[in-house]
Amino acid sequence: MMASDLAQSPQVSTEDPRAANREKFELELEFVQSLANPYYLHSLAQQNILDQPAFIHYLEYLQYWKEKDYARFIHYPHALHHLDLLQHAQFRSAMRKDDWREYLNQQQYDHWRTWRDYPGANSVETVGDPQESGMQI
Q1: 42: closest CA among 126, 98, 86, 82?
Q2: Which of 25, 72, 98, 125 is deepest in the core (most CB within 10 A)?
Q3: Between 122 and 69, where is the model more confident?
């Protein structure tokens, strides 16, 4: 193998379409999931990144993550909700405010704290005779 071959070998791996697609997928997945963090959104707003037309178009482009085939990879569902909210100028503007960041953070925390608490889910019922309760066997 010649020195020129070694110099070209890293380029071959980056030119592989599958590797490039996987890298793009992972990068966009990581970014979309970061949108679940109100503090990150607040930081973007304070840096005026949320006002840049190119960034707004990028957020529109990322809407494909809401499709079933892509959404299944999302670990933080609030990311998709925030992606929807970021489509609105009023929300992007509100994210500059510390109070709004704290409000969004508290809403997110409250949702996570209670989302599995369905009425009666925590109560333990004793199971009696199914005939007495009117259940069909």
Answers
A1: 98
A2: 25
A3: 69
